[in-house]
Write a structure and sequence with these properties.
Elements: H1 2-11, H2 22-32, H3 37-54, H4 57-61, H5 73-79, H6 82-105, H7 109-125, H8 139-157, H9 163-172, H10 179-187, H11 193-198, H12 203-222, H13 228-246, H14 260-282, H15 290-299, H16 314-328, H17 336-342, H18 353-365, H19 368-381, H20 386-399, H21 403-421, H22 424-438, H23 448-456, H24 467-480, H25 486-494, H26 504-520, H27 543-561, H28 566-574, H29 576-587, H30 599-609, H31 615-666, H32 674-689, E1 703-705, H33 714-735, H34 746-754, H35 759-773, H36 780-795, E2 803-805, E3 813-814, H37 816-823, H38 829-849, H39 855-861, H40 864-877, H41 905-913, H42 916-922, H43 931-940, H44 950-965, H45 979-997, H46 1016-1032, H47 1046-1057, H48 1064-1083, H49 1104-1112, H50 1125-1140, H51 1145-1159, H52 1161-1169, H53 1171-1185, H54 1192-1208, H55 1220-1234, H56 1240-1245, H57 1251-1270, H58 1277-1293, H59 1312-1316, H60 1321-1325, H61 1327-1333, H62 1340-1343, H63 1349-1365, H64 1370-1385, H65 1407-1420, H66 1435-1442, H67 1449-1454, H68 1459-1467, H69 1472-1485, H70 1489-1493, H71 1501-1508, H72 1510-1514
Parallel strand pairs: 1-2
Antiparallel strand pairs: 2-3
Helix pairs in contact: 5-6, 6-8, 7-8, 7-9, 12-13, 12-14, 12-15, 13-14, 14-15, 18-20, 20-22, 21-22, 24-26, 25-26, 27-29, 28-29, 31-32, 31-33, 32-34, 33-35, 33-36, 34-36, 36-38, 36-39, 38-40, 38-41, 43-45, 45-46, 45-47, 45-48, 47-48, 50-51, 50-53, 51-52, 52-55, 54-55, 55-57, 57-58, 61-63, 63-65, ...
Length: 1520
């Protein structure tokens, strides 16, 4: 009965508060039973029998938490004792049960436990009812496996678990296992993955199973789930195991050999995974698809972090090399011919991003040299997939930093091997690699045209070693022709390999074959465009398409240069077929000609004047244009009637879309719909403009914009005005609701929509019209809206092209933000007001819009020029801003005043100025207004239309210079308190401004002639004031010598920066710079030229800086041995002023003028030239500083002038005072002023005056002769020639040597140094012209006594030839002087053809022609040699016998330009006069002398030469 009660109590749920546990029931039963050993043994045996009869080992090992009705009593018993008791007791019970069961079955307990655990593992994997293809466990499965693996680990610890038996059991149920379960066995050290793989006998089945599950794992890794981290860890562990097993050395650390099949399995799994990924890419998987994600996941295993746990890098490195090999050799179905035709499609941009990303990961672990070596090895030993090979080359070229050098070396090695061994494979590979690299653009690799020309276009090419190499090259190129694209054929034809003349047939045959292929492709080499890019990889454009592009490009180049483009001139000569058949018809398209010729009309007129347009074609064009003009009114009327109906609907739709946008902008709840609305506007805009699919975001060519006269089509202006109006209205509406930083991205998207390829030029042109030409008429809302638009254009500056701005600004590319600097000048009151408004609005908007973003955004959105102009105008207009702001209203926003219906611009500007954010922004480098910036902006101001009065402007200048910029440190753009630095900067900026402003917009005939801009008047006054302050300032402390005047330092630096040359452009630029220097000097006190001596010293004023300027620069632009009157008088004023402050004025003046005789004699000759005007002023100034007579040196000048005047008087001339060159200069100037044609009587007055006087007079006469040819206002050249001839005759009659004047050098202290400082360099270079102009006046008998005549004549002739052909004569003269010349003409002093310090005559003249000239001239002049009797009646035969005709005329013609004329010049000389005529005639027929002489010949030279001889020819206007 008690047993029944106990059972009822146990089964009744309502009995008691809880069900009693099994232990309690047993305890109760124990109490009622009799205790004793027999009873305990009996109970134990009964329990064992009970358990054995009901034990299920499979359920036993899987007991975990579950529903109460499914729990076994053993589990409850274990759970009640806690986790530790549960683990220990369950494992001990299970172990006991397993041992007992194994004993009954007669099997080892370890084998039985392995079977039981394997069975439990399979039951857990099969428990999920989800879809069959899966590899990951569910949370419930992970929980069950966790308990199972804990039991297995305990069994392992008790040596009751056999890994081998466990692996064998799993092999039987392989397809039922989930990959995560296998991975967890590996992670928890129950059975490693390697053991599982090694236990599998069927390797193919293992590879298939593992590959399938890894693909599923990749798919599930990229799927959105909560166990993605587990999946990634699984994939990394599997890949590490496979890489280690498959790519490590065969012998492990213990010396045992790894199973070969194990390595094969690992490699096979990895290869199968890679192959499936490559096949998926080849099939064209879509981005975002499951397959795409799986491929991306597998390629991610090649990242470096996957292999961090692998200590050695050898296995991953071998794995990466193997993978690269597999990629390159995957399904090699394409032939080489296919690669030649299709490789353009395999560039880096067209390679799938997944594949290029895989290449980049593989490149990381391999060095560049290893990579190229591996590529070479694979290409040499295996069949390859050319698409993968060439896409790998493209990725290599783009991604590796030194790829260009690497690929060049690789290609060079391939070519060297190909030509050495005749290996066609190496040749093919070299060309494919070079072409593939060239596809990536010039930034990565030279274009194919450049590479081909550099490789085969010189004698250093691989093909130039032998005929065999040439045949091999052309055989290869010919084999490629059927598969070549037209671009490559054009390169081979236009840049052919360099071939010796005897093998030209090979090249000719190939060119014929290539032209035939181009004809088959319907591509004509003759019809290539003028500006067609051979390096382009695109298809060859149709001739009409390329022609229209050529015409537009030619017009653009003509607009910016004013000259016919060189490409057009070359086409008119060398490509007449294309020029006449395509270019000219496109250029001469009939149209209504504008009243004011535009750029197209100007280009056509220039071509017509240059005879580049056939007259018949031009006449047809003019008639067609007139016909168009007659029909135009009717067509215009009809178009006007049709235009509204054609454009009304698109513009109406665009207007509706813009209105809907305004509703979205002002409603904060609709901000999410802005992007969709912008897409609608973009589509409507395309319809309104008729844009195509490719008219998307702006890219490519820069925008051409004419600031002076921007042009828009009427329909373009309507669309742009609609867009700008909408933007301004939307901005003001949005600002009434929220500040810019809370308006959303609508403005940026709107501006991005405006940046279309065809719309941006129209937009910028309209902005130019509105801001630069119609600025005062803009309302406040327009200014604010356009300023915000400019900010967002700056935000997109990286995506926008540069803008090429035409006149009046330099033609250079500008970023779009900098364009607004040009559109907003500050010259007048109106333009300054608009600029201040615009800058205030732009800066305020950007500070509010990007307040929470980095300052880099501000730098990109705002041009530094606008920020500096804002500072400049605020300082200028508001005096309260000239002091640092003492307070800031934190509640005031700079944007708030701009949103009011009536904007108070002064309040808005001052509110912005007080913002701490702006003050911090202005501290950044490049944004703070510097002294130089202030000067540049102030120079643009035009005082007559300035907002400041003269008094206010002067006060502002004084504050800006002396209070703001002068004391400021140089780091912030100041002058460090140095007044000389301030003056230096002012002069520098002033000269820059004048140089730039002279070329546009300003008058050339301004009062100051300092660039023609009236704004420099006041700034120059400030320079005068500061220069006076420097002069009156305290003397420098100490005894150190004071540094030179700051002005000469500025002049010297600027002149040194200019190019030196004899071309017209360089000379004009230097002359313009010198003119600016001289004007500045004349505007400053004369004491600037002459340093003041100290009162306590008897020293001359320091004039070294001015002397250097005269000798080095002003001398070369002097006329007839004298400076202009203004600078000469300025110097003497300064000299007398400086002497007046000396203790002994006369001594100071004498010392200075004495120094002039040796250091700067040009000043003294200039004083003599202007003495009639200079003398009264000198007397007047001297009487003010001293009562004594004029200083001795000034009296010397006065005496020289009196002597010259007495020579021309009928009375006898007094003795000439010294020095002789000074008297000769005075006499020359007096003769020139008198305009005498004959000076024989005056020369007679010079008898007994000394030889030197006549020699110096002859020198000045020679300079006058040359000046008469070069200076239009000089006396006639015939008069000058007569004077020279008479002086020369006087010298010859008196047997006075005069040849030394033609061999002057700086080393001749007594004569050469003085005379060379009295004449410009170009006069000295033209002495050969003067020498041979006087050849007919030479006294042959007198010359027989001159040993040096032959050498001087040859020297002059060599220089004459040098001027003629712009050739270098130094090498020829050295050769002649070394013995050849002396052997024929006798010994004599060697004469250098070019004096020290003289500029080179040129370079590049072939030596052969000059050697012929020397030898022939030497023979011709041998009749003048001493000791040889003259035979006047035999002149012709003697000369003909002496002529050296060893150089045939055809050789001269072959070796250079002008040699035929040289031969004609030297072949027949009947007399000295004919010699001169021949020389000058040869000069007249050639034009190469122009750069050497620095002059340009005018029309009529040849006619003058032929009609009246050399004298009249030299007097032609061409020498002007």
């Amino acid at each position: 009965m008690s047993a029944f009660r106990a059972r009822d109590a146990a089964s009744d749920p309502g009995h008691g508060s809880r069900r009693r546990a099994w232990a309690e029931l047993l305890a109760g039963r124990v109490k009622r039973q009799k205790s004793g050993p027999e009873g305990e043994q009996k109970v134990r045996e009964s329990a064992v029998r009970l358990l054995r009869s009901h034990l299920n080992l499979g359920d036993l090992v899987l007991e975990v938490e579950g529903p109460p009705h499914k729990q076994l009593c053993l589990s409850r018993l274990i759970d009640d004792d806690g986790p530790v008791a549960h683990t220990d007791l369950s494992s001990s019970l299970i172990g006991s049960a397993l041992r007992d069961q194994a004993a009954q079955l007669g099997v080892p307990a370890a084998v039985l436990s392995s079977q039981v655990v394997a069975s439990g593992l399979v039951r857990v994997c099969e428990a999920d009812a989800g879809p069959p293809p899966k590899v990951l466990l569910t949370p419930d499965q992970r929980k069950k496996l966790s308990s199972l693996f804990e039991i297995a680990q305990k069994l392992l610890a008790q040596s009751m678990f056999s890994r081998l038996s466990f692996c064998q059991e799993l092999r039987k149920v392989q397809n039922s296992l989930l990959l995560e379960a296998v991975w967890r066995l590996h992670v928890q050290n129950i059975v490693s993955l390697q053991e599982l793989l090694e236990s599998h006998a069927d390797s193919q089945a293992m590879v298939a199973w593992l590959s399938r599950d890894l693909r599923l794992l990749c798919e599930q890794t990229e799927a959105p789930c909560q166990h993605a981290d587990v999946a990634r860890a699984m994939l990394a562990d599997f890949v590490q195991m496979l890489v280690l097993r498959g790519f490590q050395k065969n012998v492990d650390g213990r010396g045992t050999v790894e199973p070969e099949w194990m390595s094969q399995v690992a490699v096979a799994v990895l290869d199968r995974m890679l192959a499936s990924a490559l096949e998926a890419l080849a099939a064209g998987i879509q981005e975002g698809s499951i397959a795409h994600k799986a491929v991306s996941c597998w390629f991610g295993v090649f990242s470096g972090h996957v292999y961090r746990s692998i200590i050695s890098t050898e296995s991953p490195k071998r794995f990466f090399c193997h993978t690269l090999t597999q990629i390159l050799t995957h399904k090699p179905v394409l032939k080489v011919s296919d690669a030649v035709q299709m490789q353009r499609e395999w560039s880096f941009a067209r390679t799938p991003p997944l594949l290029s990303g895989l290449y980049r990961r593989l490149f990381v672990i391999l060095s560049p040299e290893e990579l190229v070596g591996h590529l070479q090895e694979v290409l040499e030993t295996q069949e390859v997939n050319w698409q993968h090979v060439l896409s790998c080359v493209s990725t290599l070229v783009i991604c590796l930093p030194d790829a260009q050098q690497l690929v060049n070396g690789w290609v060079s090695r391939l070519l060297a091997h190909a030509f050495e061994s005749g290996d066609l494979d190496s040749m093919v590979l070299a060309f494919l690699v070079a072409r593939q690299a060239a596809l990536e653009g010039p930034a990565a690799f030279p274009s194919y045209a450049a590479w081909f020309q550099a490789t085969f276009g010189s004698t250093r090419g691989f093909h130039s070693c032998s005929k065999k190499a040439l045949v091999f090259l052309f055989k290869f190129l010919s084999d490629l022709v059927p598969f070549e694209g037209p671009r490559y054929l054009q390169v081979h034809i236009l840049h052919p390999p360099l071939v010796p003349s005897k093998y030209r047939a090979l090249l000719t045959d190939y060119v014929a074959l290539a032209r035939t292929r181009l004809a088959d492709l319907k591509v004509s080499i003759e019809n290539m465009g003028l500006y067609e890019d051979l390096s382009s990889t695109g298809d060859v454009t149709e001739p009409h398409c390329q022609t229209s592009q050529d015409v537009e490009k030619a017009i653009t180049v003509f607009e910016h240069t004013g000259k016919i483009p060189a490409a057009v001139l070359e086409a008119s000569i060398f490509r007449r077929s294309y020029y006449l058949s395509h270019f000219l018809p496109a250029l001469l398209t009939p149209r209504e000609l504008p009243r004011v010729p535009d750029s197209r009309a100007a280009l056509i007129e220039s071509l017509r004047r240059a005879d580049k347009i056939p007259p018949s074609l031009y006449s047809t064009y003019r008639q067609a244009c007139s016909t168009v003009g007659e029909k135009k009114p009717e067509d215009v009327a009809s178009r006007r009637e049709l235009e509204p109906s054609c454009t009304e609907e698109p513009l109406g739709l665009l207007t509706t879309a813009l209105q809907e946008l305004r509703a979205s902008v002002t409603d904060p709840t609709q901000h999410d719909a802005l992007l969709a609305q912008m897409a609608v506007i973009s589509e409507r805009l395309h319809s309104a403009l008729g844009l195509g699919e490719d008219d998307s975001d702006i890219e490519g060519a820069p925008v051409q914009l004419s600031v002076r006269a921007p042009k828009l089509q009427p329909w373009e202006q309507r669309v742009v005005d609609l867009l700008l109006t909408s933007f301004c209205q939307n901005l003001m509406a949005a600002s009434s609701v929220a500040p810019p930083d809370r308006q959303g991205p609508w403005a940026a998207h709107f501006v991005r929509t405006l940046c279309r390829r065809r719309l941006l030029p129209a937009l910028l042109s309209r902005l130019c019209q509105l801001l630069r030409h119609q600025g005062p008429s803009l309302s406040a809302s327009h200014v604010v809206g356009l300023a915000a638009l400019a900010v967002h254009l700056g935000e997109s500056r990286s995506a926008l092209p540069e803008v090429h701005v035409g006149p009046p600004t330099p033609a250079r590319g500008l970023p779009v933000p900098e364009l607004f600097d040009i559109l907003l000048p500050c010259r007048t009151q109106e333009s300054s007001a608009l600029c201040l408004k615009f800058c205030t609005a732009a800066i305020s908007y950007s500070l509010c819009k990007f307040s929470s973003q980095s300052r880099d955004i501000l730098y990109s959105c705002l041009s530094p020029g606008l920020i500096k102009k804002f500072q400049f105008l605020v300082f200028r207009w508001f005096s309260e801003t000239r002091d640092p702001p003492s307070w800031e209203d934190p509640a005031s926003s700079p944007w708030r005043p701009l949103c009011l219906p009536s904007v108070d611009w002064q309040r808005a500007a001052l509110c912005l100025w007080k913002q701490r954010t702006l003050r911090e922004l202005l501290k950044q480098e490049g944004l703070h207004l510097t002294y130089r910036d202030w000067l540049q902006l102030e120079l643009e101001i035009q005082p007559e239309v300035d907002s400041l009065s003269d008094t206010e402007r002067q006060a502002f200048h004084q504050w800006a210079i002396h209070q703001h910029f002068l004391p400021a440190p140089s780091a912030t753009g100041g002058c460090d308190g140095d007044l000389a630095v301030a003056c230096t900067t002012l002069v520098d900026v002033l000269m820059d401004f004048c140089q730039s402003s002279r070329s546009y917009d300003h008058s050339e005939n301004s009062d100051l002639v300092l660039g023609g801009c009236t704004g420099n008047r006041d700034i120059f006054s400030r320079l005068q004031e500061m220069a006076a302050d420097l002069e009156q300032g305290p003397a420098p402390l100490g005894h150190a010598a004071p540094r030179g005047h700051f002005l000469f330092g500025v002049f010297c630096r600027r002149l040194q920066a200019l190019a030196r040359g004899w071309d017209v452009a360089s000379r004009l630029q230097r002359q313009q710079e010198l003119l600016m220097c001289k004007r500045i000097l004349l505007g400053l006190p004369p004491s600037v030229l002459v340093g003041s001596p100290r009162l306590e010293q008897l020293a001359a004023p320091d004039c070294s800086d001015f002397f250097h300027l005269v000798n080095s620069e002003l001398r070369n632009f002097s006329h007839d041995g004298a400076l202009t009157h203004d600078i000469t008088a300025h110097f003497f004023r300064g000299l007398l002023n400086a002497c007046s402050r000396s203790r002994d004025p006369s001594l100071a003046a004498d010392l200075t003028l004495t120094a002039c005789q040796t250091q700067c004699p040009l000043l003294l000759t200039s004083a003599l030239l202007w003495w009639p005007h200079l003398e009264p002023e000198l007397h007047r100034r001297w009487r003010r500083c001293s009562q004594s007579p004029l200083p001795a040196e000034l009296q010397r000048l006065q005496e020289a002038q009196h002597f010259a005047g007495s020579v021309l008087s009928p009375l006898a001339a007094p003795p000439a005072p010294g020095p002789a060159w000074l008297c000769a200069a005075a006499l020359h100037f007096v003769i020139r002023r008198a305009g005498k044609e004959s000076v024989r009587r005056e020369l007679g007055q010079l008898d007994g005056q000394g030889e030197e006087l006549l020699v110096f007079l002859f020198f000045f006469s020679l300079m006058g002769l040359l000046s008469s040819h070069l200076t239009p206002q000089a006396i006639g050249s015939l008069k000058a020639l007569n004077v020279c001839a008479e002086v020369l005759g006087c010298l010859q009659r008196k047997r006075i040597s005069w040849l030394l004047l033609f061999q002057l050098t700086e080393t001749d202290a007594s004569l050469g140094r003085t005379l060379l400082r009295l004449a410009p360099d170009h006069h000295i270079r033209l002495l050969p012209v003067a020498f041979y102009s006087l050849l007919s006046y030479f006294d042959e008998d007198a010359l027989l006594q001159e040993d040096a005549f032959l050498h001087v004549a040859v020297n002059m002739y060599l220089k004459l030839v040098g001027l003629f052909v712009a050739g270098e004569t130094g090498a020829v003269w050295t050769l002649a002087h070394s013995g050849d010349l002396q052997a024929q003409a006798g010994a004599g002093p060697g004469l250098s053809p070019d004096g020290p310090g003289r500029p080179a005559l040129g370079d590049g003249q072939p030596l052969l022609a000059q050697r012929a000239a020397v030898s022939t001239l030497t023979a011709a002049l041998a009749i003048f040699s001493p000791g040889r009797p003259r035979k006047p009646d035999n002149k012709r035969s003697s000369f003909s016998a002496a002529v050296d005709t060893s150089v045939p005329e055809k050789e001269l013609l072959r070796h250079g330009r002008g040699n035929a004329q040289v031969l004609a010049l030297l072949s027949v000389f009947m007399s000295p006069l004919l010699f001169t005529v021949r020389v000058l005639n040869a000069f007249g027929k050639m034009s190469m002398w122009r750069p050497a002489l620095g002059v340009s010949p005018g029309p009529g030279c040849l006619g003058a030469m032929g009609s009246t001889g050399p004298a009249h020819w030299l007097s032609c206007s061409c020498w002007a």
